[in-house]
Design goal:
By secondary structure, the chain is an alpha/beta fold. Helix 4 links the parallel strand 3 and strand 4. Helix content is about 45%, strand content about 15%.
Length: about 400
Amino acid sequence: MEYIRKQFHTLKKRILEPRKFIQVLAGPRQIGKSTLVNQLLEKVSIPHTIEVADAVEPRDSDWIHRVWESARTTMMLRRLDEYLLVIDEVQKIENWSEVVKREWDTDSRNHLNLKVVLLGSSRLLLKKGLTESLAGRFELIRMPHWSLQEMRDAFGLSLDEYIYFGGYPGAAHMIHDERRWRKYIKDSLVAPAIEKDVIMTSNIYKPALMKQMFELGCGYSAEILSLTKMMGQLQDAGNVTTLASYLDILEQCALLTGLQKYAKDEARKRNSIPKYQVYNNALLTAYKGREFVEDRTDTRVWGRWVESAVGAHLLSMADELDYKVYYWRETSKNKDEKDKEVDFIVVRDGEVTAIEVKSGRRGMNSGLPAFVEDFHPKRSFVAGTGGVSLEDFLSSDIEELL
């Protein structure tokens, strides 16, 4: 049985409405965008064409006009009142948004009922093109990485398997052959994402450095490390400004981010040491994991995997629900005392939620009470041992938590 993600119902509803907006389905690679559209086309009776820009010469922006004109001609020849054009990997074409704008506006002036769905694997490129040229002409449907609930319902993954192997549907059947699974993640997911979605379409002056930084950052997920110290572990490291810009691009592509330290002062947030966080725990495991059984039985190591899984779950809906994720740490002035810290701080509409992750690897530190005393958050709780169960938290709707 095919698994239907909730974004399917949103897209179907909009496609069946009268033509008003371009529908844009955006998200990272290999999370099921094309599959969802194919599922949709099987359920609706609208005549359609699917075009994929992946193998098209990037400078051939006229390709969009040609496929659009073909759709118009098909409508005319068949005397159709309605038609649907789907363009996948549209961001691979240079100046794609300007061409789409021109074609869409032409149809609007001519009252042609040609509906359009655009798919793209890079939020960075889609966001840039949409905001620059297509303002007011589109609706964005974000597709995040798969959640615990989805991976469990679709593939039967347990809580521990999801924490370790993450939420890539195409790799789910490989988890019992870890060498094969790891090669698939690196070769079929990471390599195309970095080499095509990032390097080919961004101003990356040192591609090898970008790749090194990504791999190192994935291995540090749920850990705090300054960019200066990261430079010491990279070959041809460039400078801190270069690394910071690369990290920002990786965040826009929903691969890796550097969480900022929570503070009331915006300048202090921006200048803080980043806490690295993958968007999918498969990326941590691919670059840092040993073997599932070995890492699962090492309480210290497993604690980091759990914390990273919680962070990935929080990031999954940050854009959709318009909230920010931070961490908090207060350095102790007494060298014999541990620093006070809270793993994740979520801020939405000025309201703060503090979340400490505990997996049995360590006792409760004094960070959460100290943060509550200093900042008076709307809500504060422990996820894991002694608090909200990991099963409940990772299966939760983030909006309900906030």
